[in-house]
Amino acid sequence: MASTAFVSSGLEFVPNNYVAPLINENTPEAFHLMQNFLAQSSIGRALVEPQKLSVSQIKSFSETGVYDDGGDSGTPSIVFEFQETEYVITPGTVRAAMGFDDYTAYTIAVGDAELVRMMREIGYGGSLTKIGQLKRPFLRKKWSFFFDCITRTFGKKCTNWDAIPTYSLQIGYSLIYGTHFDFGRLVLINMGEKMTENRGVVYFTRFCQLLFSACVSGVDILDEDVIPCFKLHKRIFSDLVNKDVKKGNVGDLLLPALVQQFLDDSIQADQQPEPINTEIPPSTSQPIQKSGRVKHRAVKPAKSVKPSTE
Question: Compositional bias (Polar residues) spans (predicted)?
């Protein structure tokens, strides 16, 4: 686990694209609702995977990747090369690799008025005059954790984590109200813009690995090639609890309908009795059939351009 920037294979890896702490074990119960809600959301996989990173594979992706923003009406893309084969990444590639929901149409963004409504509904205690200048300290600890996980995973920055960028608000709005936000497009644009700024500095290390692995199959990650990923330490929970106690200018903890429904469903599931197995067990004298194993052979790709479907 890394917490500060480090250099490997001539590249500087900066702290962002953190792994979110979504496992309930050894964490305060007060945060379990948000942990579970995020883990089971459409961004659940992107918040935690992968946690094994190859410096050589990320280096190939980062150094050969060419970003195209698609213009005003086109589709953004990244083309990278590995072993004389080019791979094209589109928002569809990102959605498939990260487990985002696939829809026939997407919401690019909602207006500021809707974002203001959301922040009021979750009890934001600060000024909502400028939607691009909101801060996590004006939220109760559970919602502060919610936006901290989102920003540290998807944010194209490595400092000032108290600020809530507009794109984090858009992601939060989609999760809370169930809109068809195009997470794949956002991820690709943020990665492409940072890739273009400086080839020697790598942002989004986990996402680089996810996309490389989704495009290039049959390439193992050797132990000597592994680099650490950035993870949110569990001490953030005690920090959030301590800060929450001192807050006098934030609203009550409020749960919008979709989050409340998730909580109600979770409680109902916990209260249901365990099913009783009434089936008669098979006789021990019956022969046991051994299942066969299927071997998969990796095929070396030919030199070509591999487009990805939208």
Answer: 271-289
pTM over 0.90: no
Instruction: Please tell me the predicted confidence (pLDDT) of residue 274.
Output: 57
Structure token digits, residue 116: 């203001």
Between 134-143, 176-185, 237-246, the lowest mean confidence (pLDDT) is in 237-246
Tokens read off for 276: 């009783």
Eight-state DSSP code of residue 6: E
Backbone angles phi, psi at 140, to 5 degrees: -65, 160
Q: What are the Cα distances from residue 1, in Å, to 215, 261, 262? A: 26, 35, 31
At residue 204's C-alpha, the angle toward residues 199 and 210, to 5°, is: 110
DSSP SS3 for 20: coil
Q: Which of 214, 213, 237, 267 is nearest to 149 (CA)?
A: 237
DSSP class per residue in 153-210: HH-S-SS-TTB--HHHHHHHHHHHHT--B-HHHHHHHHHHHHHHH-TTEE--HHHHHH
Residue 210 CB contacts under 8 Å (≥ 6 apart), including other chains: 46, 49, 50, 97, 98
Q: Within a 13 Å sphere around the CA of 51, how many CA atoms are in the beta-carbon half?
A: 10
What's the burial of 257, exposed, middle or buried (CB within 10 Å: 0-12/13-18/19+)? exposed
d(CA 137, CA 195): 31
Per-residue model confidence as pLDDT tens digits over 285-302:
333 333 333 333 333 344
Q: Which of 138, 107, 106, 104 is nearest to 123 (CA)?
A: 138
User: What pLDDT, on a 0 to 100 scale, did the predictor assign at position 50?
Assistant: 96
Strand partners, 85: 82
3 state DSSP class of 261? helix
